[in-house]
Design a protein that fits this description.
Radius of gyration: 20 Å
Distance between the termini: 45 Å
Strand order of the largest sheet: 1-2-3-4-6
Largest sheet: 5 strands, mixed
Number of strands: 8
Structural class: alpha/beta
CATH class of the largest domain: Alpha Beta
Strand content: 15-25%
CATH superfamily of the largest domain: 2-enoyl-CoA Hydratase, Chain A, domain 1
Number of helices: 10
Length: about 260
């Protein structure tokens, strides 16, 4: 059933991918110190400039919410590089979809999250142009586009195996990534270079070595598992209390208290 639903959604994505309308880039204030930039709709030429203008008009460091079916590949690559340069946090909106070229925005942000009930769909990148071109020109364009995408993946520290996965999936089919695949490819994780930077800062703050910090982080999954602690609130009945318990447990383990 999931496979059928995935193909239906992928077909909708493929059809919508050809739309020439620009993406919607909207600002949503969360608090006096937090703001979201919502990127939705089809990505088109000029959207990277609009994203830059929107970002730089904010007083506080924005976070990014994605809900896009894709669009112009090269524009998406530019937007992804911009998000990396700004050390952005990009999240696929709850219940939203990040498909096709949108995935390059998710890759570009060094801090990434895919929320519950949201979807990430990949397929072979292709041009949105319907221009009648000779085969040799299409071949040249294909090779150059492939080289640009491969270079982007290298810059963002993604395996070229992910590109092979894209290339093996026709646009009209699409591939809805499972949670395991999102984890495997690192699409719901922090970029390794930026994670090292965060960890080094944490180690300095705690006055411990990186080796010791890694050991403490390795213990968090088992120590802060509610199944192993009878005092832990029930996540199903009191999510807020569970969140506070987990945060304290995480901090205690990280500080070497537990």
């Amino acid at each position: 059933m999931r496979a059928i639903a995935s193909k239906i959604l992928a077909l909708a994505v493929s059809v919508g991918y050809c739309a020439a309308e620009a993406a919607s880039i909207d600002v949503e204030p969360i608090s006096s110190k937090a703001v979201l930039i919502n990127i939705s709709g089809s990505i088109a030429a000029g959207d990277s400039d609009r994203l830059k203008e929107t970002w730089e008009s904010q007083k506080n460091h924005p976070s990014i919410y994605l809900d896009s079916r894709g669009g112009d590949v090269d524009e998406a690559l530019r937007m992804g590089r911009f998000l990396r340069a700004k050390r952005a946090m990009a999240t696929v909106s709850p219940g939203g979809t990040c498909a096709s070229a949108c995935v390059f925005l998710l890759m570009g942000a060094p801090f990434r999250a895919v929320t519950a009930y949201s979807q990430v769909i990949i397929h072979r990148p292709y041009t949105t142009s319907t221009e009648d071109l000779p085969d040799e020109v299409r071949e040249k364009n294909y090779r150059e586009r492939t080289a640009r995408i491969r270079s982007f993946l290298d810059e963002m520290h993604f395996s070229q195996d992910l590109f092979h996965e894209m290339e093996s999936t026709p646009p009209e089919q699409g591939h809805l990534l499972s949670e395991a695949e999102l984890t495997r490819w690192g699409l719901n994780a922090t970029d390794p270079v930026f994670q090292e930077s965060v960890d080094a800062k944490t180690a300095r703050r705690l006055g411990v070595t990186m080796e010791e910090l890694v050991k403490r982080h390795a213990r968090i999954e088992s120590v802060c598992n509610s199944a192993n602690d009878s005092s832990a609130p029930n996540i199903s009945t009191d999510l807020d209390a569970y969140g506070k318990w987990y945060s304290k447990c995480y901090s205690d383990v990280e500080h070497g208290i537990r």
